[in-house]
Amino acid sequence: MVSIELKNITKSFNNNKVIDNISFSVEKGEMVSILGPSGCGKTTTLKIIAGLVKPDSGEIFFNGGSVLHTPVEKRGGVLVFQDFLLFPHLNVEENIGFGLKMAGVKKNERKKVVAEMLKLVQLEGYEEKYPRELSGGQKQRVAFARALAVKPKVLLLDEPFSNLDTRLRETMREFTCEIQRKLGITTILVTHDKEEALMSSDRIIVLLDGKIKQSGTPTEVYFKPACLRVAKFFGHKNFIEGIVRNGVLSTAMGNYPIQGIENGDYQIMIRHEEIKLKKGTENSAGIVERSWFAGERTYYIVKVKDFSLHCIEKQNKIFAEGEKVDVVIDFNEGVFFKKENYCR
Amino acid sequence: MDSKLKPYMLLLPAIIVLLGIFMAGLLSALVQSLGYFPVVGLKKITFEYYLEVFKNQDFLKSLFFSLYISLTSSVAAVIIGVLLAYLIVKSQYKEGIETVLYKLPIIVPHMVAALLIFNILSQSGILPRIFFNLGIIRDQSQFCNLVFDKNGIGIVTTYIWKEIPFVTMVVYTILNNLNKELLEVALNLGAKKWQGFIYVALPLLMPTIGSAFIIIFAFSFGAFEVPYLLGPTYPKALPVLAYTAYTNPDLTNRPYAMVISMILTIVSVILILLYTKFFRLLNDYNR
After folding, report:
1. CA distance from start to end of chain B
2. Is there a contact between B189 and B128 (Cβ–Cβ < 8 Å)?
3. Residues contacting residue A77 through CB under 8 Å, at least 6 positions apart
4. What are the angstrom distances between the C-alpha of A39 and each of A19, A85, A162, A240?
């Protein structure tokens, strides 16, 4: 188990800067997610940590010691790739034992470790199967077991669940988190799925255009996004312009009392779950424009003046499209972005 | 007409011509090898000719000579071809080399290749002349006999020269498309670069290498022109022996020629079966 620190890492491919001076650290036994859209440099960051890609500049430390010049095979940062990449010519047992064989571990010992790993990933009896005979979830488990078999200093997961269907993804995510906690292994998970990051991590690093935009606990990142782009990446859709003057927020929707916000121009983010809908009257300002029933909840777009607000209500409150509703917004629960925090 | 039968009926003329010619030739060779050749009064079906051929020292020497030529040239071509493919994949100039190598095996027929080797290796060839002019040998006749020799050096050299580009290109295509990330996985799991090549790249290339080996082995085992032009008078390569027996004015020798041809056919069928197995393995890896 190691702590990891990246300092001022930069990487370009064909004059295109993929990683732009990023620094972060991961504590021993911590599970950190690097969250960002495709092409933001997540996988490159993982490969740099593993030693498969050399950074143009910067330093990498494992337990405080530089590993920048340690070759990939000796570094101990083991990757589980997005498409599993099991060796097609080797069976499950040989795949899991591959790293041990390369390290010169004797066959008997290898067998023992492989059996332990198969038990851990609940695939006992699959020793003789070839990758082509396994389902997506099974392949993922074998890839995971193969990585764990070499006792990695740090486990690097490159979108490991993205090739699985929704149900299996949830199962595998829970399974992976459980094993990570059981073994206490330092883990970095790369994903573009915000829910996956929120549910699996101790900490989330949001990477956009090769730069770290925010780092914090899942609740910090979700409830207090550092800038508009992070907020938008998390799927927040309600942004209202307003001016705060002496404890009063003025917006095109009306004036609202506000506490603890200094005077200035703002973009205010209101999470869809913070907007409450009530059965309206003829004089109500809100009209249900669209609705999507999704079982335990219903999604709405409600028109208030020129604003289209995205809201969620539980299943006991169902409004019809075109129905008049009262919209209750507590702006004190909103996130206020000053212009310098837009980070476009 | 039944719509299910229609495509088969439409294909029938082509199938009759293709299979008809092939099967007629094969059956004719088979019955003649079993001693049925009524034109010269041989009407008794017997395995006698097979037994005689297998007891014949000339045949056995020819069989081993053919196996030796095919095996030596194919193994050498595969080893050099694989290394060359690896170097081309690593080379920054691969586009240029690739184009040239593609053309080489296509534009030079085996017969021309045999003549080229003859012009270089025979005692009146280019190599002895260079050696003579450099003063290494006093007379061109002192140059060791590399064509028409018992070791089949000329034949083997011709086949190696012709087959290396074929192996190179077949292996190069697969090697170039081999998932590079699998090698990254190997390194990431602690393998050194050479271990990645030995334990990952090479096994994944094996079906391709095996297929290429079988193709060139089968060709060199059954080909006639190169051993006919560059081979020794004794022992003759198997196809040359079959041809000699076939062209013998004494037609009662015909069953012997057909026995040799049938043996060549059986070896080819075995090689085709092996090739199919390798091909299936290749498909399995890509699934």
Report:
1. 40
2. no
3. A49, A50, A51, A62, A152, A153, A154, A156, B188
4. 10, 20, 15, 29
As for the ipTM of the complex, it is 0.80
Contacts of A80 (CB under 8 A, 6+ apart): A140, A143, A144, A147, A155, A156, A157, A158, A160
Domain-embedded: residue B11? yes
Is the domain of B66 the same as that of B170?
yes
Q: State which H helix or E strand residue B209 sits in.
A: helix B202-222
Q: Are B33 and B262 in contact (CB under 8 A)?
A: yes
Q: What are phi and psi of A263, to 5 degrees?
A: -60, 145
Q: Same domain for B28 and B69?
A: no
Q: Is B41 within a domain?
A: no
Residue at B118 is within a domain: yes
pLDDT digits (tens, 9 = 90+) for A296-343: 889 999 998 888 899 998 866 788 899 999 998 888 888 998 876 666
Give how far B179 is from chain A: nearest CA, Å. Answer: 9
Number of folded domains that form chain B: 2
Give the three-state DSSP class for B159: helix
Contact B286 A88 (CB under 8 A): yes
Rounded-to-integer distance, Cα A206 and Cα A188, Å = 13
**Are B244 and B188 in the same domain?**
yes
pLDDT of B188 reads 93
In angstroms, the first-to-last Cα distance of chain A is 38
* Residue B221 and residue B146 share a domain: yes
CB–CB contact A102 B199 (8 Å)? yes
Range of the domain at B260: 47-286
Percent of chain A with pLDDT over 70: 98
Q: Are A77 and A106 in contact (CB under 8 A)?
A: no
CA B150 to centroid of chain Cα atoms: 19
Q: Tokens for A158?
A: 């490159």
Regarding whether B147 and B57 lie in a shared domain, the answer is yes
- Closest residue to B285, CB basis, from A73, A78, A89: A89
CB-CB under 8 Å, B203 with A79:
no
Q: Same domain for B171 and B281?
A: yes
The answer to whether A228 and A343 have CB atoms below 8 angstroms apart is yes
Looking at the domain that runs over A4-228, which CATH code has it been given? Answer: 3.40.50.300
Same domain? B1 vs B96:
no
Nearest CA-CA partner of A208 in A35, A17, A15: A35
Topology classification of domain A236-341: OB fold (Dihydrolipoamide Acetyltransferase, E2P) (2.40.50)
CATH of the domain at B200: 1.10.3720.10
**Cβ separation B285–A79 shorter than 8 A:** no
Centre a 10 Å sphere on the Cβ of residue B219 and count the other Cβ atoms it contains: 19
Q: What is the mean pLDDT of residues B17-29?
A: 88
Residue ranges of E strands in chain A: 4-13, 16-26, 31-35, 57-62, 65-66, 77-80, 154-158, 186-191, 203-208, 211-216, 238-245, 248-251, 254-257, 264-270, 275-279, 286-293, 297-304, 307-314, 324-329, 335-338
In this structure, are B67 and B28 located in the same domain? no
The residue with tokens 């101990």 is A76
